[in-house]
Amino acid sequence: MYDLVVIGGGPVGMYASFYGAMQGLDVKLVDALEHLGGQLIAIYPEKYIYDLPGHPKIRASEMIDQLKWQMDQYEDKIEISMHTTAIDVVKLENGTFSVTTTNETFHSRTILITAGNGAFSPKKLDVKSKGIINLHYFVTDMMQFQDKDVVIFGGGNSAVDWALMLDDVAKSVTLVHRRETFRAHTSSIDKLKASDIQVLAPYKPLELIGSEALANQVVLEHLERSEQITLHVDDVIVLFGFVSNLGPIKDWGLELKCAAIAVDTQDQTSIPGIFAAGDAVTFDGKVKMITTGFGEAVVAVNAAKAYAYPDQNHRHQHSSSLGEK
Questions:
Q1: Is the pTM of the predicted complex or chain greater than 0.85?
Q2: What is the CATH number of domain 2-120+242-324?
């Protein structure tokens, strides 16, 4: 019997596991991927994160390494099961939960879902591109673009940040977006305007031209004037975001809103004893950032501890109020 089962091994799930163990809970962390870190490690290990408190910038892989070190302090309290998908959760008559995964069935007093957006796949370029090997939807090694002519498609934080990171690595960087306005942080857009990066907006891709499995030209069309231009390219990076799916979680009877899990002020779901934090959840005023996910994890873990051990929580509150008096 675990005190807390954390479903999802991204940064929020890792921090929740550490914090739960620090609060004295026996924690089991389950994740479908082979490595801790979620999308950050699977897709963006070399990408810098600029909005983490205390770090002007930090590589995603370094942040995950630090979270691992934090968890390792409580390795006797945290059991980790990777490459394991949570298939079903059933609430028992005594208020605890039976959790079935692809590998085993076990029991827990509480559940915390930190599965992010669930299973994810990149949104694809809407042109014929099958078999082209220099078309990339993930960037795991930015040095592969050294001295290359790179075209990046996208208008969000990932596209703008990668354009800025590759500006000093690639021979040239061209950022192509369907709209004239970008959805990235204001500071990143200011850096983009001050850089040598060529920005083409509003343009859309029409065709990739090349020989065998390599594209060496990209044909673009202006969305307002229907004018076409052709760019030479060594590599194409597409950063349109991801199509996400909560997978089995959506069938657990939880209240969902806009494909996300609805929670209350204690990050508890519609099923008492099941909590959720991070990008998996929605509520009024929700902001999808790693830092807010960390805060939600703290709220959820404390609420989960109070649910698992209500008598202990009552004694703690009583002694605290006496101390204040």
A1: no
A2: 3.50.50.60
